[in-house]
Task: inverse folding
């Protein structure tokens, strides 16, 4: 796909598989058909576009930019809504799978969560939910089938450095984030921090849930990909890259994990083989589970170490 005038930072397939969105250093978002034909150029950002993502119905595109703006676009190329401008550059944006929330990770070390306006806490009454009641702006899409997002986002604080990646769980109930502070954080849908996953020795550039929602993958400048369970326990470290790992993605069936590094290499990991360690851990927990639960000399904090960890055969 050749048409951008500068580097492409983000690529996203629509859920229906018909359209590709790209975000570029040339400050534009472009839409393409799956056979490579350009459909639309979305203009409005004033600086490089770091991240693009489709809504679950494939009809809306969200973009985040160095210009501190998060924008919502229609498939036809009109701007549907301009979310409140942030205080810092936006590195990552993502729709929740249920389409009711948008997350944005930025350079001010925070995550912003916007909800659809029918979920706002008294922000607008039902009479004001129509997009036509928004302040008119040039190019704003007034399609009444589009339900706008709340004016005020929930702010998630906890990271100590730039946030490079945010991703929702398949059931939309959790959010995972990766940061330059070398940590991965797990959050609840309402913005509460659940736990911090520590283990990387470099900046975390990309995070993702597996399609079944049971595994979190993280990619780092330390040249590794790590796999974690939802309890925050490291399942395995995937070693094979010779440079920092910047992006990763699961196949729809969860059997393959693809990761790419700054040298231009892509590694395809077979998750069935990679997770043999998890099966071994499950068997070990199956063996010592009763000991952890009932031995009087075990600290109370250690009694739940094996909760939920089982071998594949169970």
Result:
């Amino acid at each position: 796909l050749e048409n951008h005038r500068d580097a492409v930072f983000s690529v996203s397939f629509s859920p229906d598989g018909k359209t590709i969105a790209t975000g570029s250093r040339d400050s534009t978002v472009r839409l393409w058909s799956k056979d490579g034909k350009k459909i639309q150029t979305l203009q409005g950002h004033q600086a490089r576009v770091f991240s693009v993502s489709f809504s679950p119905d494939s009809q809306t595109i969200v973009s985040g930019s160095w210009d501190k703006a998060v924008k919502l676009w229609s498939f036809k190329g009109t701007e549907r809504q301009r979310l409140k401008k942030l205080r810092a550059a936006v590195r990552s944006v993502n729709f929740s799978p249920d389409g009711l929330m948008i997350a944005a990770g930025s350079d001010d070390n925070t995550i912003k969560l916007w909800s659809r306006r029918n979920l706002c806490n008294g922000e607008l009454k039902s009479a004001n939910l129509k997009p036509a009641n928004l302040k008119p702006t040039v190019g704003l899409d007034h399609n009444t089938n589009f339900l706008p997002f709340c004016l005020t986002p929930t702010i998630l604080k906890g990271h100590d450095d730039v946030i490079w990646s945010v991703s929702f769980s398949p059931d939309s109930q959790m959010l995972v984030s990766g940061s330059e502070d070398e940590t991965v954080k797990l959050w609840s849908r309402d913005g509460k921090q659940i736990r911090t996953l520590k283990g990387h020795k470099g900046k975390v550039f990309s995070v993702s849930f597996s399609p079944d929602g049971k595994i979190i993958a993280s990619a780092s400048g330390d040249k590794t990909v790590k796999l974690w369970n939802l309890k925050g326990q490291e399942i395995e470290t995937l070693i094979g890259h010779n440079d920092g790992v910047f992006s990763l993605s699961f196949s729809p069936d969860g059997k393959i994990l693809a990761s790419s590094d700054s040298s231009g290499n892509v590694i395809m990991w077979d998750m069935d083989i990679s997770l043999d360690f998890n099966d071994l851990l499950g068997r070990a927990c199956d063996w010592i589970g009763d000991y952890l639960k009932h031995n009087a000399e075990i600290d109370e904090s250690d009694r739940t170490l094996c909760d939920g960890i089982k071998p594949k055969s169970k």
About this structure: The mean pLDDT is 84.
